[in-house]
Amino acid sequence: MKHILRLVPALLILSGASAGAAENCTSAKKVAVCSDELIKEKVQWACAQLEEKDKTALLTINSMRFECCGEPNYVWINDFTPKMIIHPLKPNMNGMNLTTEKDPQGKAIFVEFSTAATKSPEGSWVNYEWTKFGDKKATPKKAWVRRCKAKDLQDPWVVGSGTWE
After folding, report:
1. How many Cβ atoms from other residues are within 10 Å of residue 57's Cβ?
2. Which of 35, 47, 147, 162 satisfies CB 3.0 to 4.6 Å to 143 for a cystine?
3. Given CA atoms 19, 36, 54, 62 in this order, what sign does their dihedral have?
4. For the chain, what are the domain ranges?
5. Can you tell me the distance from the alpha carbon of 77 to that of 91, in angstroms, rounded to the nearest whole number?
6. Which stretches does DSSP call E strand in 61-165?
7. Are 76 and 110 in contact, with CB atoms under 8 Å apart?
8. Structure confidence by residue, pLDDT tens digits, 29-86
């Protein structure tokens, strides 16, 4: 009985914390929010993989997912053309020239990602709109993008990850 009484306050604290998180992550809101630090950390991780392992790291990066408010998130890579190198959730984009790919507001988002990574090689935020997997309407999103170079490539790539605003 003493063990149960000790567990009850801990369970109440844990359930209270998760209830607060659940309120912000309801399916009705359909908003996945990751901290800026987590997004930056995952982009940096992908860059480190490329720098240490070369292009063979693409398989690892492509399969890596991390949770954002209960939804899977990912890191994508494009070159500075911009051409998609890997997009884990939209593999049909791999190899595609993205120069004319625009969000609903007319922003050439992959050109913006390339420009941001050129101006700020260590990283920069880019705001845009993107359609969440399974949705029909684009919603505001921001991505952290930076310039990274695989050790076996001459030219660098843009590595990025985003979060819904």
Report:
1. 19
2. 162
3. positive
4. 28-164
5. 12
6. 66-68, 71-73, 76-78, 84-86, 124-131, 138-148, 157-164
7. no
8. 444 578 899 999 999 999 999 999 989 999 999 999 998 877 789 999 999 999 999 9
Q: Are 101 and 110 in contact (CB under 8 A)?
A: yes
CA distances from residue 163 to 88, 141, 151, 157 in whole angstroms, order as listed: 15, 6, 28, 20
Question: Residues 159, 125, 44, CA angle at the centre, nearest 5°?
Answer: 40
Residues paired with residue 159 on neighbouring β-strands, in sequence order: 77, 146
Instruction: Say which residues have a Cβ less than 8 Å from residue 53's Cβ, sequence separation at least 6.
Output: 60, 151
Residue type, 7: L
Dump pLDDT digits (tens) for 110-159.
999 999 999 999 999 999 999 887 889 999 999 999 999 998 999 999 99
CATH of domain 28-164: 3.30.450.20
Cα–Cα distances in angstroms (integers) from residue 42 to residues 76, 131, 164, in the given order: 11, 21, 16
Which alpha helices (H) appear in the chain, and where do they start and end? 2-24, 36-53, 58-63, 109-119
Q: In Å, how far are 46, 83, 91, 106, 136 from 111, measured between CA atoms?
A: 20, 10, 19, 12, 23
